[in-house]
Amino acid sequence: xxxxxxxxxxxxxxxxxxxxxxxxxxxxxxxxxxxxxxxxxxxxxxxxxxxxxxxxxxxxxxxxxxxxxxxxxxxxxxxxxxxxxxxxxxxxxxxxxxxxxxxxxxxxxxxxxxxxxxxxxxxxxxxxxxxxxxxxxxxxxxxxxxxxxxxxxxxxxxxxxxxxxxxxxxxxxxxxxxxxxxxxxxxxxxxxxxxxxxxxxxxxxxxxxxxxxxxxxxxxxxxxxxxxxxxxxxxxxxxxxxxxxxxxxxxxxxxxxxxxxxxxxxxxxxxxx
Length: 273
What we know:
- By secondary structure, the chain is mainly beta.
- The protein folds into two domains: 42-154, ntegrin, alpha v. Chain A, domain 3 (Immunoglobulin-like, Sandwich), CATH 2.60.40; 159-272, Sandwich (Immunoglobulin-like).
- Helices cover 0% and strands 66% of the residues.
- The chain has strands at residues 3-6, 10-19, 26-37, 46-52, 56-58, 62-71, 77-85, 90-95, 100-102, 105-113, 118-127, 131-140, 144-154, 159-166, 175-184, 190-198, 203-209, 214-217, 220-229, 234-243, 247-256, 264-272.
- Strands 5-13-12-7-10-9 form a six-stranded mixed β-sheet, with no helix packed on it. Strands 1-4-6-11-8 form a five-stranded antiparallel β-sheet, with no helix packed on it. Strands 18-19-16-21-22 form a five-stranded antiparallel β-sheet, with no helix packed on it.
């Protein structure tokens, strides 16, 4: 948002005509008046402010905000002060050009901004909270103007899958349990997390358990989608099978979710003798 304010001032000048002749000066009388204006064309400041910020940042990242204050008038602007509000949920880190934090604001005391000149002011913030935030900066001199920019801070899920067998190795006819741990290492909720397991030819399904129901069909075990997994949370699934023949075999798990654009695959080797 950009606004421009021009301050106009007018002065009335009343003047007299004095005739100079030999001897003392004589006052003839008031002759007339003239109007002078300190508008845009005659020495008036016109100060405007703009503000830029990134429209999107992920939680945990920093964002830089840029304020530009311009005097497009023909006169100097005096006692220019810029105040920038610090939004709740975003943490102040630093500012340049003498900007200092005062409560919930950053304040720059520019002083005089000459005609035709601009001042660029930058500040850095840490985006620690998910949400939408609005940030407003205001410039004052003998009038005031303001500009606002909006930033959205989002999280992102980061789902890790691990599969471990126990025991290993096993004898033919003995059972082995595969423990599948799903961890959300990200900063947003993961949704509809689904596991599909594939048994090797040398194994036979015994049982499955976890936070959602596991269903067996031949060499496949499918768990119903987990509706949600909060940031830093884990979910544990287990599949127990029996070794039916010797071999160095591979148990495979594939994971999908609403946020994944392709399947994530994990394999675990088991030695059956």
